[in-house]
Design goal:
It is built from seven helices and three strands; from the N terminus they run H-H-E-H-H-E-E-H-H-H. The protein is mainly α. It has a three-stranded antiparallel sheet.
Length: about 160
């Protein structure tokens, strides 16, 4: 049986590889997927504390610090002292980082245009439409037969 998960991960890997080649061919900084995840969870206007990002991302503070350090090294992020607590660092987007992110968004538009040429505009539009749909919360409905049970049906009736 073919699983949707495999197709989703294959296409994610394709997109990431295409973007990496695109960036390399143009001499641009490639934003690694781990850094993209951090950026996705940041508060853009004021920056975010490492501890808060760790909670949002579901990883350790140490891992967030490592990712942030990679972002600083790439010129995308900077660490600044929290005005409320000088012992704490805030992760913010650097001025140069904003330009890099703007270029990355331009690249994504170009990659989508290339994908439209490859699979057709209508297919791309349908794919985007399906991905934008609200699939509901990622929890099993309470009446699902696949829902993990804490007791067997015979225990429940006794």
């Amino acid at each position: 049986m073919e699983l949707m998960h495999q197709f989703l991960t294959d296409k994610y890997d394709w997109y990431e590889a295409f973007q990496q080649q695109y960036d390399k061919a143009r001499g641009r900084v490639h934003i690694k997927p781990t850094l993209v995840q951090l950026l996705k969870h940041m508060e853009r206007d004021q920056g975010s504390r490492i501890a808060l990002l760790a909670v949002r991302m579901g990883v350790s503070r140490r891992r967030v610090s490592q990712i942030a350090a990679e972002g600083v090294e790439a010129g995308i992020l900077e660490l600044v002292a929290d005005p409320d607590d000088a012992r704490v660092s805030i992760v913010t987007i650097s001025a140069g980082g904003q330009q890099i992110l703007d270029k990355a968004i331009e690249a994504m538009h170009e990659i989508e245009a290339e994908l439209a040429r490859r699979i057709g505009r209508e297919n791309l539009a349908q794919l985007v439409k399906l991905l934008k749909m609200d699939w509901g919360p990622p929890v099993l409905p309470s009446d699902s037969p696949d829902r993990p049970r804490t007791q067997t049906p015979s225990e429940a009736s006794s």
